[in-house]
From TrEMBL:
Signal peptide: 1-27
Molecular function via GO: calcium ion binding
Domain EF-hand residue range list: 76-111, 112-147, 159-194, 196-231, 273-308
Similarity comment: Belongs to the CREC family.
A single cellular component GO annotation: melanosome
Protein name (database record): Calumenin
Main location: endoplasmic reticulum
Species for this entry: Tursiops truncatus
Entry's localization field: Endoplasmic reticulum membrane; Golgi apparatus; Melanosome; Sarcoplasmic reticulum lumen
One Pfam family matching this protein: EF-hand_8
Record lineage: Eukaryota, Metazoa, Chordata, Craniata, Vertebrata
Length: 323
């Protein structure tokens, strides 16, 4: 089997199993499928600056990158942090705002997404021009399958291609059917972009709405998560989900979820951890209390932002308390 065939096979599995480009485990009858997109925690460490700044390091850099700073001297940490500050200062005005910090933290936390896009990029950018056109994506993903009107695996590739094209056009902001890397990221991971959320909702409803009436009723909602598979008794979590549908999902009590109710379900307005951490970092580092940070203010508090093998945490706490 050629490498290209393997790539296409992997992509078909990816697109089939990930209707929202989010991994859903293959469900056993008693396991729950979760379509809800929650903002993940910034770190698995406790956020307690009185004990350590490990949470802040993970939040600011991402957990994997944070580990690399632990092996650096304070001087090396400060130097690398200064380079990062220049990247965070998006408008190059010499200051880092809460908004810029929030954007940086979100980007650092989504590194696995950008790595995923990088891994796929070269396979789709056939002419190596730094862009991916819809034709390039279609040819790599569907080319060999569209020649076979009745594939053995039972997938309707023409229907899947139409759905992909719709999403590609939504991600393509300027409408030229050519995706930049950011637009291609939005295409592969639409749940991460505000302007793509309508397509996430639309695709979800199409997956679950079996009678195609434009709504999700109770049985469709349960059927997406659970298959009776000959079992007469439902697990407790299924009974709980039925109650959740009636009490919380179906807000207008008409027995079904419309587009807005579905959006509230799968894309809830979660607590914004990145915004809270950005506010915290500014508060702790803003020496002149002007609401924004200079590179000097950030580097001076380098131990809050990044680690170092020689960081004296006791001394850091003294400086922390001075503010």
């Amino acid at each position: 089997m050629k490498k290209t065939d393997l790539i296409i096979m992997d992509l078909r599995q990816f697109l089939t199993c990930l209707s929202l480009c989010t991994a859903f485990a293959l469900s056993k009858p008693t396991e729950k499928k979760d379509r809800v997109h929650h903002e993940p925690q910034l770190s698995d460490k406790v956020h307690n600056d009185a004990q350590s700044f490990d949470y802040d390091h993970d939040a600011f850099l991402g957990a994997e990158e944070a580990k690399t700073f632990d092996q650096l001297t304070p001087e090396e940490s400060k130097e690398r942090l200064g380079v990062i500050v220049d990247k965070i200062d998006a408008d190059k005005d010499g200051f880092v705002t809460e908004g810029e910090l929030k954007s940086w933290i979100k980007h650092a936390q989504k590194k696995y997404i950008y790595d995923n896009v990088e891994n796929q990029w070269q396979e789709f950018d056939l002419n190596q021009d730094g862009l991916i056109s819809w034709d390039e994506y279609r040819n790599v993903t569907y080319g060999t399958y569209l020649d076979d009107p009745d594939p053995d695996d039972g997938f309707n590739y023409k229907q899947m291609m139409v759905r992909d094209e719709r999403r590609f056009k939504m991600a393509d902001k300027d409408g030229d059917l050519i995706a930049t890397k950011e637009e291609f990221t939005a295409f592969l991971h639409p749940e991460e972009y505000d302007y793509m959320k309508d397509i996430v909702v639309q695709e979800t409803m199409e997956d679950i709405d079996k009678n195609a009436d434009g709504f999700i009723d109770l049985e469709e909602y349960i059927g997406d998560m659970y298959s009776h598979d000959g079992n007469a008794d439902e697990p407790e979590w299924v009974k709980t989900e039925r109650e959740q549908f009636v009490e919380f999902r179906d807000k207008n009590r008409d027995g079904k979820m419309d587009k807005e109710e579905t959006k509230d379900w799968i894309l809830p307005s979660d607590y914004d951890h990145a915004e809270a951490e950005a506010r915290h970092l500014v508060y702790e580092s803003d020496q002149n209390k002007d609401g924004k940070l200079t590179k000097e203010e950030i580097v001076d508090k380098y131990d809050l932002f990044v680690g170092s093998q020689a960081t004296d945490f006791g001394e850091a706490l003294v400086r922390h308390d001075e503010f």
